[in-house]
Amino acid sequence: MAHLLSKDRITAPPGFNRWRVPPASVAIHLCIGSVYAWSIFNPPLTMVRGVVASAGSDWTLEQVVGIFTVAIVFLGLSAAVAGKWLEKVGPRCVGTVAACCWGGGFLIAALGVSMHQLWLVYLGYGVIGGCGLGLGYVSPVSTLIKWFPDRRGMAAGMAIMGFGGGAIIGTPIKEALLEHFFRAPQYLGTVAEVELVTQEGRRLASIAGDLKDVVVIGAAELKRLPADLSEGVYVVGTGSVGIAETFCALGAIYFVIMMIAAFSYRVPAEGWKPQGWTPPDESATSRKMISTHNVGVDEALKTPQFYLLWIVLCFNVTAGIGVLSVAKTMMSEIFGTTLPQYVNAAFASTYVLMIGVFNMLGRFFWASASDYLGRKTTYTTYFVLGIALYGSIPFTAMQVSADPSVVWLVWFYAATMIIFTMYGGGFATIPAYLADLFGSKYVGGIHGRLLTAWSTAGVLGPMILTYLRDISLTNAMKKLAALIDPQAFQQKFGAPISQLKELIAQKTVTLPKLMELVPEGTQNPSATLYNSTMYAMTGLLVIALIANLLVKPVSAKHYERGGAGEGKSGG
User: Fold this and answer.
1) Nearest-5° angle of CA 552, CA 294, CA 163?
2) What is the phi/psi pair of residue 125, to 5°?
3) Which of 64, 113, 221, 569 has its CA 20 to 30 A from that of 120?
């Protein structure tokens, strides 16, 4: 088995067509790139017990977004380790281990959901699955850059393009599987037909003499469900959102595809170069900061350029990944209440799919364009445009809240799609940027180390977004509750308004339910819940822009000497 996976086994023979390698890279990245459709899992994971609505015992949005965060953290950490290991053992071995981790992680996560043990979901999808993400991510990058030294940007774009497009295929598959496995919980009747009591913020109903946890859903909640159900009272712990079964199916599918792709990898022989291509001399590439020298992995960490690019990648990813983690929820909250005739559950799911489309297209377009523009100029373009677009979203949200017009939906859609082309482009361009500054010989190892910036961003982005959103949501619900007649509140929730904190904690009181009781003409605050987050992301892009402008060519004292990656190079 070790011989079957060895690097020597996959060295390409003379005359091998290098265009046979990209399909394997894209296939693996399409599988692991489905992580970008994570927000599809947010609603069912927050309703595992309640099924049709979140019960008091269900996990919160912050908790389930944390699973995505852990996966991204372990992506970066495993990539940092796997970069140098990849150069030693080759992409087939790394790709095989990635398939086992990513597919197996889904199965462990499924067990965690079925047992309602959140730590198992974190272990499966977050830790083990995250390691599969990192291993699968780095395996094709340095391989394709070595196959395409004449078009580094395009090569990196091809290698990483599939990761951005994973949500394109993943979104409809996940939606179809969740709908297929969904089972409605036990229905007790309408609110008028069921005698309800409230204890410590929880809604309870008497069933055969025993008090059982229940959830109450209205018209607003029904629009977000995959089945045709009725308003009223449902028993907690009955039915299924289908998430465990979906995880099992996805784990098996991804494992098979990734194993086939891993065994399709080939690496060029030592000293190979494209027919008719001559490496350019230093003077011809100086304008775009493309060096003809190599810098070892450990030596690269001693340069200011590595840390400036770390900031560039970290803050660019932070700005995008927070939005990615809650994309479906964000679209529903901003426009689902203001423009419900256009934005429903299906529209929000399509929005997630289109994020994948533009993310993928941006990876290839911007990376290829960087071959002509230069990497530094390309990143400057990302940040200048990004600052303007992120800064426009709060204005858009406030306008659609005050005057619900489809114009604001179109602008938001267009602005975020452009943002995600640049988010994807940033990932695809960074390997070529590193190869330009440090040479292509050790780019796999250096790129792996730099991906720790992705780990950091995976924590910062969702944390900033969910923290600021929760503050905005809590403040909004307090303001709405103050406008409601206390008797109407008592009748609706079975508890006085003085227990608002407990009722919110048990998910008995939600923003949509409060909006049913407020005076007519009260503005729905859902559209503005993400405004403070967007201002924070804009600030991060300003810092990233400054870091990119400070990038200069690497000093000659860091160049490899002797050609073996030993001694000073630390490769």
Assistant:
1) 80
2) -75, -40
3) 221
CA distance 221 to 218: 6
For residues 566 and 522, what is the distance between their CA atoms, to the nearest angstrom? 69
Calpha distance 490→404 (Å, rounded): 31
Q: What CA–CA distance (Å, rounded) separates 94 from 87?
A: 10
Separation of alpha carbons 220 and 226, rounded Å: 13
Q: Indicate the pTM of the whole model.
A: 0.72
Q: 399 is written with which tokens?
A: 């306008």
Which two three-digit tokens encode residue 115? 């047992």
Task: Check: CB of residue 285 under 8 Å from CB of residue 435.
Answer: no
d(CA 322, CA 462): 4
Question: What is the b/e burial string over 149-166, where b = at least 16 CB atoms within 10 angstroms of the residue's CB?
Answer: bebbbbbbbbbbbbbbbb
Identity at 253, one-letter amino acid code? I
Task: Please provide the distance, in angstroms rounded to a whole number, between the alpha carbons at the two ends of the chain.
Answer: 28
Between the alpha carbon of residue 426 and those of residues 131, 153, 429, the distances in Å are 22, 11, 5
Predicted confidence at residue 563, as pLDDT, reads 46
> Average pLDDT per run of 10 along the chain, which is 571 residues long?
72 86 87 86 92 90 88 88 79 91 97 96 96 88 79 74 78 91 92 88 86 86 76 92 96 95 86 77 55 84 94 90 74 83 82 83 86 90 93 88 87 90 87 86 83 86 84 91 92 89 87 88 85 90 95 89 45 34
Secondary structure of residue 341 in the 3-state scheme: coil
Structural domains of the chain sorted by starting position, each given as residue range(s) with its CATH number in brackets: 2-12+21-269+299-555 (1.20.1250.20)
Two tokens at 560? 């490899």
Write out the DSSP string of 222-283: HTT-SS---SEEEETT-SB-SHHHHHHHHHHHHHHHHHHHHTT--BPPTT---TT--PPPHH
